[in-house]
């Protein structure tokens, strides 16, 4: 089996524990002064790449792992999540710096990743199935299409075989299914794939000195041109309180009163 050159794209998003608020201009959510962290699905990708190298739970590829490269496109503060990825097992990182508040659409991200894959000669891309800010769930599929590679989405288990074969168990409605493909390929991760580790202080300190290459969109020949326009963002209307009934007869009467039956 070929030695793996794994690319792990990660994104800086508003922390999952933060209650988001729509900004005053109603063009998006408020990001100023809000805690950010690595996208949870991408956190799984970093951990899985590291587990593949460490031969944990039978994940190791027969050809071994030559390199794990973390990648992110975002504002200067996106370097923080790249350092986190380095502390958790990545060998080096690439940061495409964007202006504060600038964002890329999934197709632009996929085109950017395609250029990175070709430059880095990656043969396996592991990324989160979606980011928790826009929930598009498109980038991995678009990347596989642009590269002409097989893809396995929503992975909850990854196993390696001989002759560059990879089996991926996917979560689907009502259960799981397993698909098999050959490298190179794109895999997107789902929540039950693994349990991300905490980076130890010595590794965090070491990560601060590890290679982090700075790039621009122009370096990869990619434009950040927007194809979609957000007209307005509003919060959902507040929910009305419910009521209680004493028994089934009361429930039926209430539903009739509301015109539900």
UniProtKB/TrEMBL annotation:
Cofactor: FAD; AMP
Signal peptide residues on this chain, from the entry's feature table: none
GO cellular component: mitochondrial matrix
Keywords annotated in UniProt: Electron transport, Mitochondrion, Transport
Cofactor binding summary note: Binds 1 FAD per dimer. Binds 1 AMP per subunit.
SUPFAM superfamilies referenced in this protein's UniProt entry, alphabetically: Adenine nucleotide alpha hydrolases-like
Subcellular location(s) of the protein: Mitochondrion matrix
Biological process, per Gene Ontology: amino acid catabolic process; fatty acid beta-oxidation using acyl-CoA dehydrogenase
Electron transfer flavoprotein alpha/beta-subunit N-terminal domain span: 26-224
Molecular function GO terms recorded: electron transfer activity
PANTHER family on file: ELECTRON TRANSFER FLAVOPROTEIN BETA-SUBUNIT, ELECTRON TRANSFER FLAVOPROTEIN SUBUNIT BETA
Subunit: Heterodimer of an alpha and a beta subunit.
Main function: The electron transfer flavoprotein serves as a specific electron acceptor for several dehydrogenases, including five acyl-CoA dehydrogenases, glutaryl-CoA and sarcosine dehydrogenase. It transfers the electrons to the main mitochondrial respiratory chain via ETF-ubiquinone oxidoreductase (ETF dehydrogenase).
Protein name: Probable electron transfer flavoprotein subunit beta
Organism placement in taxonomy: Eukaryota, Fungi, Dikarya, Ascomycota, Pezizomycotina
